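Retro notes, structure queue

What went well: the backlog is down to a handful. What didn't: a couple of records were mislabeled last round, so from now on we paste the full input next to the output in the thread. Example, using Glycosyltransferase family 15 protein from Aureobasidium namibiae CBS 147.97:
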Amino acid sequence: MALPPAVRLMAIGTMVVFCYLCAQIFRAPSSLSAGGKDAVKFSDMPRDPNLDPTGEPPEPLHRVSGNNYAPDNVNSNRINATILSLVRNEELDGILQSMRDLERTWNHKFNYPWTFFNDVPFTEAFKKATRAMTKAEVRYELIPKEHWDVPSWINQDLFRESADVLKEHDVQYSHMLSYHQMCRWNSGMFYHHPALKDMQYYWRVEPKVHFFCDVDYDVFRFMQDRNKTYGFTINLYDSPQSIATLWPETVKFLAANGHHQHPNNAMKWLTDKERRPDHNVQANGYSTCHFWSNFEIADMNFWRSSAYEEYFDHLDRAGGFFYERWGDAPVHSIALGLFEDARKIHWFKDIGYQHIPFFNCPNSPKCRGCVTGRFTDGEKWLNREDCRPNWFKYVGMSPEWAVQNDD
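Corresponding output:
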């Protein structure tokens, strides 16, 4: 018997709604095995090296012996290095959290100075509270206006219009001018500050980060002794919508400055299009892989080199720090991947670290408070943001860990 027209319409409508809901469920990024060109299946993920037992890098390492790292020892074993933080007065609680963790796990032994930067003067309350967290020297520095202000060649109307477009594409902080200024300062300004003129190495620390593992050797002396340029813990994919023209501008720079490329570079890591093909397409040839620079231990001589200075000046003039949302993480990473010997870039596997929502948590008795091998405590799909597999594929693990694993 034929169904009445009203019932048939209701059945068709129900089927349409059912199909729509099914499509939404299967499109949702609740699992890394979801379909689509940009999906990353769990089967594509290699075993996380953090699950393997992690010790220290091989000797020789510089350690505390007697008063050789005492805070008041003018002839200590400390080298020209500092812990560095760009922080606002209102972020006091967050930076105290970070200081508490890093002092507990490392710096109470080595007493390297803390250097805080702000675009406005620090309050006495900020100074008093941070000084109470450490026995080491603490320095409070004001960023010069010429390092922070928007450059004269940036068109403010175009900035606002571009920010509107970025917002439509869900790019965070697109209208926040101070965020753009921060990214530019972290990319190419901080190492020019007079307070750092005699410093070679820095360890960047941001508010609200966690450190989980005791580190019993001088990481700065490790960088110096092993001739390392850059150290990272987390390696991620970036938002391609925020850096759409960064790689094309890089290609323009290389066309005239190809001599800066290092023969042992990480170009394949920068341009991979197999694992996240949509990222490569949307970023116009860039994989978007980058070192997450809220943690970085680095040699400022690299940023002060002609290769990096010329590259930064090219990017700065292109305006992408304001017309898009170029971050210091992809800028630093591209430069390192092109202009530095990849063997001088070190994964600090043994330093447990978290910046929400990502972790570096090694398998070590020196670590407390994090789950071994956990990459994120957020949604499961966030695991696909891990770009370490590509780093290991194209560059390899740091030689120090290879030696350890061979043992």
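Agreed that this is the format going forward. Reviewer comment attached to the example: The first strand starts at residue 81 and ends at 86.
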